[in-house]
Design goal:
The chain is mainly beta. Helix content is 8%, strand content 50%. The protein is globular.
Length: 126
Amino acid sequence: MNKVFLNGRLTKDIDLTFAQGSGTAICKFNLAVNRKFKKDEADFFNCIAFNKTGEIIAEYFKKGSPILLDGHIQTGSYENKEGRRVYTTDIIVDSFDFISIKKENDTQTNSQDWSPADADADEIPF
């Protein structure tokens, strides 16, 4: 089984493009996930979300935003401009959760679950 759950923050603003011909939304972002037992250390993951999931992530998230995602690992390769084979490892986002940050006076953290399977094509997750 290939399943990944990550809770982290976006390291930069999202890159949203649309595939030529099909118009498929392709949302690429980098996620920093803190290591549990190593203070001030994090792992960084390249993430890709497609279609409505990608469009919603691009609309509501930006650099520094926390996100909880559910996805799977996908490896691939391509030939760069110098003719060398480059290998990639990406997290393909299947669904995600909005996470609100606990404020100093707050005692509760809220999140809202959303999955593309839960919504009509025109429905916004709120």
